[in-house]
Amino acid sequence: MYPQEVLEQLKKYIPPSKIKTNEPMKDHTSFKIGGPADIMVFPSSIEEIVATVEICKQNSCPYFIMGNGTNLLVSDSGYRGVIVKTAANMKDCSIDGERVYGQAGILLSTLSKNVIEAGLEGFEFAHGIPGTLGGAVAMNAGAYGGEIKDVLKWARLLTPEGDIKTYSNSRLKLGYRSSLVQAEGLIVLDCELVFKKGDRKQIDERIREYTQLRKSKQPLHLPSAGSIFKRPEGYYAGKLIEQAGLRGKRIGDAQVSELHCGFIVNVGNATAQDVISLINYVKDEVRDKFGVELQPEIKVVGDMGRIKV
Ligand SMILES: Cc1cc2nc3c(=O)[nH]c(=O)nc-3n(C[C@H](O)[C@H](O)[C@H](O)COP(=O)(O)OP(=O)(O)OC[C@H]3O[C@@H](n4cnc5c(N)ncnc54)[C@H](O)[C@@H]3O)c2cc1C
């Protein structure tokens, strides 16, 4: 069986403390959903990521790169292969004037604190997004009129062919929750962001305002993966779902949030199947009522059986 061979080979390059087997993915996702991953690796260097991916490829073993698991829905049966989680150990950052360097696994909240303390403005939008820098580049994460595309200078990437390359912002084709990283299966290793000197009082004021908005409008007290659908052109997904009469709609322990209909929340022990069934139900209702096709923003990991998002 490949996991055992893969495990033996991984142990030659990666300390055992950074490898887990049969690891429950619900402990690594903001949804608190997901069965066991065969193997989970917590690399602390670019070399360890490269070695892990190389070993997986040599053994035809599936692998998946994750940040902080805040945009993921992982199958109830888990993942047959290797999950590479950057959020634990790949979190170096440094600031030189207006230039900010960060490794893929640093949390946006931590990075934004450092950026603010350096008196730099332009990263306030990212403060409340619970993911990592690598995940934010992959998703071109954004909020309150800002997005990663506005501040990214370059990203260093591992290509599917095993090369390490540095791509400029424009080459990464950052669009609305899309990027070349997703399209080509690139792995973000580290990045440089650029900001401007700003007025500390105004920066703090904007952070307060955005934090307040999030607290009042988002169900932060319940597990979720943020907005479940992308914003359809000309509409807001949450508004359409609300107008379709689906506020609070529940399948199993997955529920359309009472507070923000664009979120699906886990109100107890929701399964991935509960969430998928609810997504499909919402999609059908919104399509029937308004003729709008909602597209999921979340990424589905592992085998979901016959049910398709
Ligand atoms: C309460 C809440 C609020 C949220 N608010 C926002 C918001 O305002 N704006 C917003 O845009 N999002 C928001 N999100 C969604 C989520 O936080 C973002 O999509 C975030 O960018 C995901 O980062 P992550 O590290 O958690 O990635 P993960 O969820 O771990 O992965 C997401 C995708 O990124 C890929 N990925 C992760 N790391 C890398 C890497 N190093 N290299 C290549 N690919 C990688 C994964 O393969 C996967 O396809 C919210 C989520 C929650 C739970």
What is the 3D form?
globular
Report helical residue fraction: 25-40%
Q: Termini distance?
A: 30 Å
> Structural class from helices and strands?
alpha+beta
What is the CATH domain class of the largest domain? Alpha Beta
Task: Write structural notes for this entry.
The protein is α+β, with helices and mostly antiparallel strands and 309 residues long. It has 3 domains: 2-85, Uridine Diphospho-n-acetylenolpyruvylglucosamine Reductase, domain 2; 93-202, Uridine Diphospho-n-acetylenolpyruvylglucosamine Reductase, domain 3; 219-301, Uridine Diphospho-n-acetylenolpyruvylglucosamine Reductase, domain 1, CATH 3.90.78.10. The chain is 29% helix and 26% strand. It is built from 8 helices and 19 strands. It has helices spanning 2-13, 46-58, 108-117, 133-139, 180-184, 200-217, 237-243, 272-290; strands spanning 19-24, 36-41, 63-66, 72-74, 79-85, 93-96, 99-103, 120-121, 142-143, 146-147, 152-158, 164-168, 187-194, 196-197, 224-227, 250-251, 254-256, 263-266, 299-301. The strands form 6 sheets. It has a 5-stranded antiparallel β-sheet. Strands 1-2-5-3 form a 4-stranded mixed β-sheet, covered by helices on one side. Strands 15-18-17-16 form a 4-stranded antiparallel β-sheet. Helix 1 runs antiparallel to helix 2 (46-58). The longest helix has 19 residues, at 272-290. It is globular and about 55 Å long. Flavin-adenine dinucleotide binds next to strand 3, helix 4, strand 9, strand 13 and strand 15.
